[in-house]
## 1
Amino acid sequence: MRPLVGIIMGSQSDWETLRPASAVLEDLKVPHEVRIVSAHRTPKRLYDYASSARERGLKTLIAGAGGAAHLPGMAAALTTLPVFGVPVESRTLKGLDSLLSIVQMPGGVPVGTLAIGQAGARNAALLAASVLALMDPDLAERLAAWRQAQTDAVAETPSDP
Ligand code: RP5
């Protein structure tokens, strides 16, 4: 099936953080693609990817990057698709640099910014699925079931490790 969500990341080193986004989309049976696209090291790849995303049939983008994390913002500058930004935890500044780089967009070019790290990646995928579910009742049911399973998995009392 043609991918509906594009997951892009600035580096191979970001994959560990972004992998849960892909896993959630797999669980929800949302067709998606995963690419390394660096705003700084492969700017032409970024331009080509983001500017052609809509015409290729993608409906939303999830973009993760760390440090001077310009990938989500530049992708948002090149497409009107919804872009969800995931700050990757950097070694030196623990991802605060990534978060601020992604969240502080100028008015008019939105990036929906998530939490730093894997929780942000997971939530980006859930948001992307929520957007798609607006027009896809079957996906809306799968999403509701996913959330219910999460609720059901929470024990009432803590157990010892
Ligand atoms: C950013 O620089 C990437 O998104 C990554 O989080 C960070 C470090 O990249 P590597 O030096 O590990 O390739 O562009």
Note: The radius of gyration is 16 Å.
## 2
Amino acid sequence: MKKIAVAGTGYVGLVAGVCFAEMGHSVTCVDIDEEKVNLMRSGVSPIFEDRLEELMQKNYAAGRIEYTTDYASAYEEADAIFIGVGTPEQPDGSANLSYIATVARQIAESVVKDCLVVVKSTVPVGTNDKVEQFISDFLVNDVRVEVASNPEFLAQGSAVKDTLYAERIIIGTESTWAEELLTELYQPFNLPIVSVNRRSAEMIKYASNDFLALKISYMNDIANLCELVGADVQDVAKGMSFDDRIGSKFLNAGIGYGGSCFPKDTKALEHIAQQHGYDLRTVKAAINVNTDQKTMLYKKARNRLITFNGLKVAVLGLTFKPGTDDLREAASLENVPLLLEQGADVYAFDPVGAENFARVHPEGQHGRGSITYVASVEEALQDANVCFIFTEWGEVKAVTPAMYKNLMRTSLVYDGRNIYPVADMQAVGVEYHSIGRQAVEREVKASVTSHV
Ligand code: UDX
């Protein structure tokens, strides 16, 4: 059992802290936000994540996890300090490292015994060399402090599972002491450990995320071509997936990738390459395809309808994927403002993301358009002229083709997640546009009338 401190209680830090506690270590999570710390002490998770709250309560009751704003006392006695603070994207695509620098300085001023600083945050290659130097510059006591890289690969919605049962643990160290200590900390997880040097570990994180982003953008590119040549991208993906070298995951064409990692990490790696005078063409292509993909359906709909002015538009799903309340880089954030600008009356449904969305786009009038948040898909669809599907929530997948036909004024559906078999929509007479599949067109009468 080791004493672990964790800096930052966002997705990365809190999940890591709770999982280390679950594995028997003694963990103190540090955050600057007093209110958040009190909330966590009372057993409430600040983020929506499967099993997290349950494990927070269990390990708190067992005395294995504590939360504090007092970083000095947490860092002082720790064998290892994990850093999980954010590295937000800056306007030029580079990562903002100021939170890491703040924590590094606090560590340097607090530690009184040898300790390993483990950076979990995604940082540009070479950053951890600088963090180690920075800590040694500010170190107050005569102790050994080394920095290791230990990137995480958790996906939102399954973060606890992804940590406890990770496919691999990447540890990047520069000494046997650091390698052995980190290996010992992870020993109770009983998972495959890949031990490399620090820069390779930093690179593995970017290379993995960007590869997945590339895979999605590739399928979106192929999807757009499928539409033009009369192929069906889902059938194409199925055929490809039988090849083990390709695999079956992350082949779903759609409205582009969002979230806190893929958009940020693709731009960051491109930026790193640029700094080294290298043109990282593949990643650049993935970014470009994704940018266009997000508004693909909106553009199709605008061409079809000419204007959204005065139309009731149902929006199903706002978050970047189901199972999270996170809106970062979600397609809805690009499309809803375009619809509002065009004078649409948007009726938006999302089982958990609506509150966050309403902070950016409050309910009510926005210029010529308006937005209303509704509690059910039925309310969104009732008398709507057009429907956009942005997130494949269970509640959205439960809507039958007949419901679009019966509830909407004009059943015109733009599906960014390819939820329905095209033939099912065709069978009930819904005009249906999706990604990389043939559209079901309807005879256009003077049918798209305002709902007002
Ligand atoms: C991702 C990685 O999966 C994780 O390993 C990494 O550490 C952080 O980034 P996350 O962003 O939570 O996790 O979600 P993920 O499930 O990977 O989806 C990201 C985006 O890609 C979503 O917008 C999703 O809708 C989209 N996506 C995913 C597709 O469009 N098609 C696919 O086939 C898969």
Note: The pocket of uridine-5'-diphosphate-xylopyranose is lined by residues 153-156, 209, 216, 250-252, 254, 257-259, 261-262, 320-321 (CB under 6 Å).
